[in-house]
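for the writeup, i need someone to sanity check this before i put it in the appendix. the sequnce is what the collaborator sent (i think, or maybe the updated version? ugh). structure was predicted straight from it, no edits. if anything looks off just tell me and ill rerun, i have time this weekend
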Amino acid sequence: MKPIRDPLRPATWARHASRTVVAGLVVAIWSLAFPPAAHASLLSPELEYKLAGFIAVAVLFIVPITLIVLFWLVHILPEQIAHKRHHPQFEAIRTLCLLSLVFGGLLWPFAWIWAYSKPVLHKMAYGTDKVVHGAEDEVADQDEAYETEVAVEGLKDRLGRLEARGVPASALKTLRADLDALEAKFAVDKENR
């Protein structure tokens, strides 16, 4: 009967290790003797040239523009925060943001802190720490309403002068209807404000 080989015996390990070393040396010698064709890239030279052109354009044009836009967007954040929080010193914060752009971002942290601060002295002086921005729009709406009212009065005067001259009533009837419709629209707009 043959003896059973024990894989855990040291003699068996030595034989397996020597076979593995010999096989590795054969593979190494074979690969050194017959090397495969070497390629520096997976792409063809023409495709590499085109890819290099696209990367150069991106680095020279797209990346700087993107960085400038991101720099600008970050620097107007305090202005937007102040506007959203109805900060009474919104215009001053806006000016500080613009100055921060000029000075390379050195003033930006001050604008950020200022946008989040509570205006204590303003509250002491005016009784509130918030201001409704867009008051200029309300003034513009009031000016427009006044101009419309003056225009309606002017049209009424002109219509009265035409009647005094003796213009036939049939011709003035359509003008009077248009003027009445304009007055009704003006009255509705005035009530909605």
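Helices lie at 10-33, 45-75, 77-84, 90-102, 108-116, 120-126, 135-165, 169-192. Residues 47-126 form one domain.
thx in advance!!
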